[in-house]
Structures are given as C-alpha cells and as structure tokens.
Amino acid sequence: MLLLPSPPALAIVTRTLGEYVSAFRHILCRSGPAPKRRADAVLLAANARPNAGGKLAGLTLWGEAAFFPPPRRAYVSLAPPLQRKERQLLFRLKRSGTELFGGPLPNKTTVHELLVRTGEADDLLPYRRPLTSLRDLEEWPFPAAVVKPRAGSRGRGVRLATLSPPYLLWGQDAHGLSFRTAYQRREDLFAALVPDLGGTFLEEPLPLLTPDGRPYDVRVFLLREAACADRPYLLAVVVRLGLRGRFTANLHTGGTPLSFREFARRYPDLGTAERKERLRKAAVRVGALVFRLFPRAWEVGLDFGFRATGEPVLLEVNGTPGRTSLRALGADLPARRLTRLLRLGLSPCAAERYPGSVVGKARARAGRGCPLLRGLSARTKDPYPRETGTIAQTAAGGRERASKGREEGAVVGPWSYREPLAEVGFLGAGRIAEALIAGLVASGTDGGSILVANRTRAERLDELAGRYGVRPVRNVSDLARAPLIVLAVKPKDVPEALSPLRDLLGPEHVLVSLAAGVPLAALTRLVPKAAVARAMPNTAAQVRASATGIAFPAETPSAVRGRVLDLFSRVGSAVEVEERAMDAVTALAGSGPAFLYAALEAMVQGTEGALAPEVALRLARQMFAGAARLWEVDPAPLAEHIRRIASPGGTTERGLAVLRETGALSAFSRAVAAAAERAAEISADVVRFLEGKDGPAP
Ligand SMILES: NC(=O)C1=CN([C@@H]2O[C@H](COP(=O)(O)OP(=O)(O)OC[C@H]3O[C@@H](n4cnc5c(N)ncnc54)[C@H](OP(=O)(O)O)[C@@H]3O)[C@@H](O)[C@H]2O)C=CC1
Ligand SMILES: O=C(O)[C@@H]1CCC=N1
C-alpha cells in the first residue's frame, strides 16, 4: 500500500489518470527537470486500477481511492452521470472534511431559471416557454421553435419544429438517433411531442447555419480569475461546426471544433470582429453571474448562438464542459486549464484570510524552481496545520477540520466549506425514495442538494449518503430548507410524517406525495400553506426510465407545475393527469412493473427442465428489454406487434390461445383494476382518518 507522508493540499479528482497525465507532464517538465519536492497536488482517479498510483515529476498520481490521507481540498473534474465508485470517493472525501469544489452544476434548466430570476442577463437569454398544451404551440410567436427536454444532455432530444404546414420535426430522439418527420396537422406534431410533455420547453430559434448549410454554435471556456473572485478568466473560444444535414453542432453528433479565427476565415460574414467582441463581453458578464451563484464552480463552458442582428444569446451553461474541443485547439490549452485550476486550488484566497502568508511569499520565490509551479505551493505559514501519521489519525484530523468549519459557520467565498443549496428533500428513505435519488444523481443532480429524512433507521440514511452523496437530515423539520419535498412514506404514515412540517411549510414550498391513494385535498389539510401535488412514479426511476403520472390541484400556477414535472422528467417520462385518473395510474405505472415481473417469472417456470434456470433468466431478461425497446422506438399498436410475431399456425398462436382460454389475459386486466380499487380504498381510509381527527374532510 502506498502512503503519502502527509495530506496533499489539493487533489484533482478525475475519472481516469491517463486523461491528465500528459497535461501534468506538460506543466511540470516544459522547463527542464522537475523539482524534487513533496507533492502538494495529487491526481485522484476515482476509477483507476488500484496499482495505478505512482509519481510523475514530483506530483503524486493516485489510483486507489481507498487509502490516502484526505487532501485539504479537492477539485472534482467528473462529468455526470457519476458512477458508484466516484460517488463513494466524493462521500469519503466530504466526510473527512475535504473542501470540495467543481463538479456538475444543477440541471441546465434549473441554471437557466436561476439566471432568469436574477434579472441580470435578460438581454442574453433566449425566449423560452414550457410546452404543456396545444395552445402553447398555437400561441408561439416565432415561425419555428427549438424543442428541448428539460433534462437533456449531449444534444439528445433537441429538435426543431416548424409551426406552419408541413409541420416538420427535425433533430435527435431520446436515444441520440437523427430523424426528420413531416406532420399534416399541428395536432399531430403536438402528439409527437407528447411523450415529453411537461418535461419539454420551446425556445426561440436562432439562425445558426453557415452559408454551406452546417449548424454551429460557440462555446466559451471560463475559469475563475482568482479563488476569491467572481471575475472570470477567458480560457478559450471554440466554434463547434456540425455536420451538414444535422440541426445541432454538438461534438457528440459529429461536430468539429474550430478556433474563432479559423471560423472567421471560412465564414467572414459570421465570424466578424464585432460579433467576437460582443460574445466576449456577454461571456464575461454571464460568467461572473454564474460564479457568484455557484461558489463551488471554478470553471464553466457557456454555449452561445447569435440572433440575426448579431446579438449573442446564451444557449446553455455547462459546469463540467467537455475537453475534446480544447485538446483539438492546441496542446497547451488543456495544460493552461490545469495550471489555472492548480493555482486556484493551492493559492490565493487563503492569502486574503491569512494576510501575508501565501501569495506574498510565493511571489518572492518567483523565478526559482520549475517556473510553472511558481506560487503553487510556497506556503511558509500554513493556515491549515498538516496532520501526519496513520490514516486513522489523518482522517480524524479531517473530521476535526470539518466540524471546526461548521462551528465557525463562515460562508465567505469559495474557500469555506459550503454545501450546495438544498433542491429537494425526501421524507421517507425506502425503496421508491432510493430509486428516485439514484435516478436524480445519475441525471447530474448534485447528491449534496438532496436532503433525506426517515423515521427511525439512521443507518439507512448513512447508507444512502454513502451511495449517492445525499445529505441525511436527522430532524424532519430540517427538510423545510428544501423548496421541493417528496413525501415517500406508506399511505398510513402520511399524517404522522407530515405533522412536524405542518407549520414550517409555506407558499414557497411544494409537497409532492407519492403515497398511493392519498388525495390532494388530504395533503392540503395536512400542510395548508404549501402547494401540493401527487406523483406516481415506479422503481425504474433508478435507471431514469420511470413512467410517472402527476396530478395538481386546479389552481396550481404553471411555475409550480413546471418544477414538479422537471423533477420527474429527470428520472424518466412524466405526464400530467387529472387527479381522478391517479388510481388507474397507480395500478398501471406504479404497480405495473411488478405484474410484468410476475408474468416473466411464470414464463421462466414454463421452461423448467428444458433450460438451466440461469440461461432462462438471461434470455427472459433480454427478451423483456428488447420488447420494451422495440415498442418504444416503434409505437405501433400492440396488436400489430403481436401480429408480427405470431405466424399463422405457429408457436405463438398456440401459446396465445392458452392465455385467452385460461383467462390469463383477462386476469391481467383484473389485476390492474384490483390495484386501482385498492388505491380508492386507501383514499377512503385516509379521508375517514382525517375526518375522525379534525372534523369532516373538505
Ligand atoms: N415502491 C414502489 O414501487 C412505489 C411506492 N410508492 C409509494 O411510495 C411510498 C413509499 O413506498 P416504499 O418506498 O415502497 O416504502 P418503504 O416501506 O420502503 O419506505 C417507507 C419509508 O418511510 C419512512 N417513514 C415511515 N413513517 C415515517 C414518519 N412518520 N416520518 C418519517 N419517515 C417515515 C420509513 O422510515 P423508517 O425505515 O425509519 O421507518 C421508510 O424510510 C408509499 O406510499 C407507496 O404508495 C409509489 C410508487 C411506487
Ligand atoms: O404497492 C403499492 O402500494 C405501491 C404503490 C405503487 C407501487 N407500489
């Protein structure tokens, strides 16, 4: 086992070592032999092989997440979705008192909405509206609309729709496959967008095509100017040029990165100096705003387009911008990025809090040693005393630092430990809560922005914190820190679970209940001042494939609807329904997966004696996944899919006949009806309980 003698000042957490080694080498060795010194910065590759640790020019490259003295700070350079091993590493760092920086920003739509709320970048943001009904298409003020999923990534699901006949829909589906379809009527176009309903918004179309028909957009890479400052440093401007015939310029769909100069050479009318200057100013303004809103962010990638008038428009904010384009533009850009990150991590803000200690001394040493390391580690008066000794002692020291930080409660600049804002709280930490948390974290939601409380089992909360980096809350009333609260307790526990929150939840809160059968009116009685909603997801939320039905009271404002629909769209497909349909939704979407699993189990039993159980299960699993995928991609009527399989006089026909004759098929209909009936019974019980408690139900 390799051990560092003392904790490094900074770790850069990466997915693999290889990605960074060349940049480190570049930084360290450009000017001759590397300095012989103790490592101040380490690379911590969450997914590297255990034996990958080693030294390169004085810096330790660390491949094993399990054994190392926790660094003081770690810069997280991992794009979502995070893998389990990565989440575990971050949790371990957090628990040891390491200050974490970087990492993904909240979902892109949330970032956009936060920017709108500041009112400081209105002139740079595109016109946007949620798509919730046909009327939204009818009243759209532009001849076309960009249609985007609220929780999309890598350009998936981004489409362009023309809003006069023929109604064209052009772009990528949720699986990243390109398509172009024409519809006769606006209703048909709307119907094609329905699967995303609620999780979708319309955005102003921009003329982002070159004269030779290639789509483009511009990504500006920004880093903080200094650790304490919100001012951005502009690292690079990259134009992304897409393939002809495509509608987006995303590099994942075959785009090519170009420098702005090269773009201007090829397309002089688009790459004008005036456009570049406006873009630079816009990027610096938005960058400062983003760094102010997200104190843990050290770098962002801002995607811009232009209106016909040449005004830049901000399309997207990325907290972990892909580095492919930087590499393509020049070998020194990735190295420059890394040098600046190291500087941010190892120097300046501490100097402001501990005057005279770091920066001044570092400057005095300039000119000696490896010039590129100048100022990175010249600590003479260390503001954070180093722990040495065993891992256990080191970890204990880290915990001490962490608790000291909490006592001080200081939230000044990016150096102090600052937890992300609470975005969603879970009341109940059982099976469906975990499925949703897993899906949210996989969609890029920061685990630290998720609060979780339960009734008694503290070890269960620790388990979830270890797996997903969520924040356990021992006191249910602390959940009121989150604007959105998901109630995930059994229906019978709802009144008791909500009682500590009754007076704490106000109009700024939304309570979303998952409890089967518990009516909206009952929820309103239990938390009278908060907005309420009912949602019925299923366990496939864990893999971001839930089918979720959501109901709101009639008077619910569209902003509240949007927030709830956004949450569930991150873990699958969400659709708004009337409350009276919720029992049926519960039976079909909530319980439905269990009915299908039971059917599969019975089918596997039918092969007993002929197939080894593990082979039968493997085949059944792929058969089920394949059938679901096919129906998703080709939504032909189920009868048609059945017809394609059942050859006349063949095997399928014989099997189907048995299902019909024995009543097995109608038994499935009855199972769904019975589940819905049970939901209705639960409703009646809850209403009776509340009546008994505090007068007649509303
Ligand atoms: N499972 C599923 O597929 C789906 C379930 N649902 C609904 O979600 C709800 C939860 O189901 P599920 O996750 O399966 O249930 P679980 O039994 O797995 O979990 C229930 C959770 O509720 C907590 N809890 C109970 N009472 C209280 C209380 N008074 N205060 C705080 N926490 C409390 C429990 O904490 P502790 O362990 O400490 O007692 C536990 O964490 C149900 O209402 C169900 O109808 C909806 C859709 C799908
Ligand atoms: O079985 C139940 O009651 C819950 C609701 C839907 C799925 N599980």
UniProtKB/TrEMBL annotation:
Full protein name: Pyrroline-5-carboxylate reductase
Q: Where is the Pyrroline-5-carboxylate reductase dimerisation domain?
A: 579-681
Q: Where in the cell is it found?
A: Cytoplasm
A biological process (GO) of this protein is: L-proline biosynthetic process
Job description of the protein? Catalyzes the reduction of 1-pyrroline-5-carboxylate (PCA) to L-proline.
**UniProt keyword annotation of Signal present:** no
Gene3D superfamilies membership: ATP-grasp fold, B domain, NAD(P)-binding Rossmann-like Domain, ProC C-terminal domain-like
Q: Which Pfam families match?
A: ATPgrasp_YheCD (PF14398), F420_oxidored (PF03807), P5CR_dimer (PF14748)
Q: What is its EC number?
A: 1.5.1.2
Transmembrane regions listed in the UniProt entry: none
Species name for this entry? Answer: Brockia lithotrophica
Pyrroline-5-carboxylate reductase catalytic N-terminal domain mapped to chain residues: 424-517
At the highest ranks, the source species' classification is: Bacteria, Bacillati, Bacillota, Bacilli, Bacillales
NCBIfam families on file: proC (TIGR00112)
Q: Which reaction does it catalyse?
A: L-proline + NADP(+) = (S)-1-pyrroline-5-carboxylate + NADPH + 2 H(+); L-proline + NAD(+) = (S)-1-pyrroline-5-carboxylate + NADH + 2 H(+)
Key words of the record: Amino-acid biosynthesis, Cytoplasm, NADP, Oxidoreductase, Proline biosynthesis
Molecular function terms, GO-annotated: pyrroline-5-carboxylate reductase activity
What pathway is this protein a component of? Amino-acid biosynthesis; L-proline biosynthesis; L-proline from L-glutamate 5-semialdehyde: step 1/1
